[in-house]
């Protein structure tokens, strides 16, 4: 059933994506402020996204739903969807000027909506313009000054929701840059008729990259992107698992304890993933540093916390999982951020291509702030010097030993936005 997932390794049937457009152009004007890891080629990133979609559709026979195409299809087919998108778009526009000027500009735009196609309103929602209403009142004197606050990270489609055994739980994004992405994805799920089990509300923040459905249980990461309130609200929504393990974001062993750098392991799926029903992947240093609180579902659907604490590594071992240990250099190069296609089959980014780019970016950070990044850069450079492509997951011997069947694709520009294939795909059907 669409919008319900019991286990990350069940056969993937449908996935939602968003091909980045002009919003990425604006994001690349200031990559750091846009939450990107590094500068990259937008043209090549878009080509890589086309290749990703082709592999999913042609090789794995997965139905790929594009956010823009599905929303536009629904808006053109259903007057109610178009009306809702139109209302959302007009409300998303900001204005600069006096009250009278702003009201005049709003009225003028509202009076023209019948002349625009649905794509016009979708672009407004993605670009989020600000109109200066102070400029000239007549056609001969009027000039245009329009700014934008685009949704630069919208192509990371995993994060705007969690898809559990009970349906879709809508996120509340932790960063200002991503706060409005859920408005668009909510419209997508409505267009698809997917079940919404709940939505996070203030003061909660919770993001889909921190959720991993694991069959009889599920994992929820708690840290820089998902807070305690977000975890509690998801548990209260009844996610449909008898056991939930809350995984606390580990301190990175190569960064100072007081480091403000949250991005390296911002989500659970940036340092942990499952390649099948018995195989997990991640750097043991981080898995052992991540403490776990275990919650059991009571008869009335509420969850009770177990007092015993353990780390994620031991917890997974206790569940019978084999763990493929990867280096921290592989983890930073998005080796864990693969997409599980079915039990034992994965689609992975080519981490051997990502690694020199990540290393180059880290070198710049280390030169600017040696006390924070110097040790991390030194260790990653050392690890990289000893590796060949065959040593890097998923090609490394341990992956073959556990029977992991894999396909590797190049997304070296797309990963510059600070995420891998798992982040870029919203799995919505795994029967």
Question: Can you give me a brief rundown of this structure?
Answer:
This protein is α/β, with parallel strands linked by helices and 431 residues long. The chain is built from 15 helices and 22 strands. The model has no long low-confidence stretch (mean pLDDT 94).
Computed over alpha carbons, the radius of gyration is 22 Å
CATH superfamily of the largest domain, please? Answer: L-arginine/glycine Amidinotransferase, Chain A
| Secondary-structure content class | alpha/beta
Number of domains: 2
* Major sheet attributes: 6 strands, mixed
CATH topology of the largest domain: L-arginine/glycine Amidinotransferase, Chain A
State mean pLDDT (0 to 100 scale).
Answer: 94
Q: Work out the oligomeric state of the chains in this entry.
A: single chain
The strand count comes to: 22
Approximate strand percentage: 15-25%
SS field, number of helical segments: 15
Distance between the termini: 6 Å
Question: What's the CATH first level of the largest domain?
Answer: Alpha Beta
What would you note in describing this structure?
- This protein has 15 helices and 22 strands.
- With 431 residues, the protein is of the alpha/beta class.
- The protein folds into two domains: 4-70 and 152-430, L-arginine/glycine Amidinotransferase, Chain A (5-stranded Propeller); 78-148, no CATH class.
- The strands form six sheets. Strands 10, 11, 12, 15, 16 and 17 form a six-stranded mixed beta sheet that branches. Strands 1-22-2-3 form a four-stranded mixed beta sheet.
- The longest helix is centred in the first third of the chain and has 18 residues, at 42-59.
- The N and C termini lie close together (6 Å).
- The relative contact order is 0.16.
């Amino acid at each position: 059933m669409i919008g319900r997932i019991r286990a990350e390794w069940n056969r993937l049937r449908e996935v939602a994506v968003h091909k980045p457009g002009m919003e990425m152009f604006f994001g690349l004007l200031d990559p750091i402020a846009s939450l990107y890891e590094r500068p990259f080629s937008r043209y090549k990133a878009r080509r890589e996204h086309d290749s990703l979609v082709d592999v999913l559709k042609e090789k794995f026979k997965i139905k790929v739903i594009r956010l823009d195409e599905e929303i536009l299809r629904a808006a053109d087919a259903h007057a109610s969807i178009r009306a809702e998108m139109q209302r959302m778009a007009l409300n998303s526009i900001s204005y600069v000027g006096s009250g009278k000027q702003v009201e005049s500009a709003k009225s003028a735009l509202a009076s023209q909506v019948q002349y625009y196609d649905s794509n016009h309103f979708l672009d407004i929602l993605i670009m989020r313009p600000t109109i200066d209403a102070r400029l000239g009142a007549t056609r001969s004197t009027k000039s245009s000054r329009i700014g934008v606050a685009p949704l630069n990270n919208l192509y990371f489609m995993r994060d705007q929701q969690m898809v559990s055994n009970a349906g879709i739980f809508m996120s509340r994004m932790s960063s200002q840059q991503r706060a409005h992405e859920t408005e668009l994805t909510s419209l997508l799920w409505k267009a698809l008729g997917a079940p919404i089990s709940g939505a996070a509300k203030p003061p909660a923040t919770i993001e889909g990259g921190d959720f991993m459905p694991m069959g009889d249980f599920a994992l929820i990461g708690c840290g820089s992107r998902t807070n305690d309130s977000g975890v509690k609200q998801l548990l209260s929504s009844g996610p449909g698992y008898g056991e939930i393990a809350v995984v606390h974001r580990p301190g990175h062993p190569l960064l100072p304890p007081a480091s403000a750098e949250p991005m390296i392991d911002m989500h659970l799926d940036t340092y942990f993933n499952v390649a099948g029903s018995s195989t997990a992947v991640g750097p043991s240093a981080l898995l052992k540093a991540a403490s776990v609180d275990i919650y059991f579902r009571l008869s009335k659907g509420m969850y009770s916390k177990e007092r015993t604490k353990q780390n994620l590594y031991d917890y997974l071992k206790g569940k019978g999982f084999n763990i493929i240990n990867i280096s921290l250099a592989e983890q930073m190069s998005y080796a864990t951020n693969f997409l599980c296609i079915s039990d034992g089959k994965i689609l992975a980014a080519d981490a051997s291509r990502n690694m020199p780019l990540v290393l180059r970016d880290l070198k710049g950070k280390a030169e600017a702030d040696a006390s924070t990044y110097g040790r991390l850069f030194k260790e990653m450079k050392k690890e990289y010097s000893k590796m060949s492509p065959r040593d890097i997951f998923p090609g490394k011997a341990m992956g073959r030993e556990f029977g992991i069947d894999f396909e590797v694709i190049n997304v070296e520009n797309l990963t510059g936005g600070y995420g891998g294939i798992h982040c870029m795909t919203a799995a919505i059907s795994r029967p």
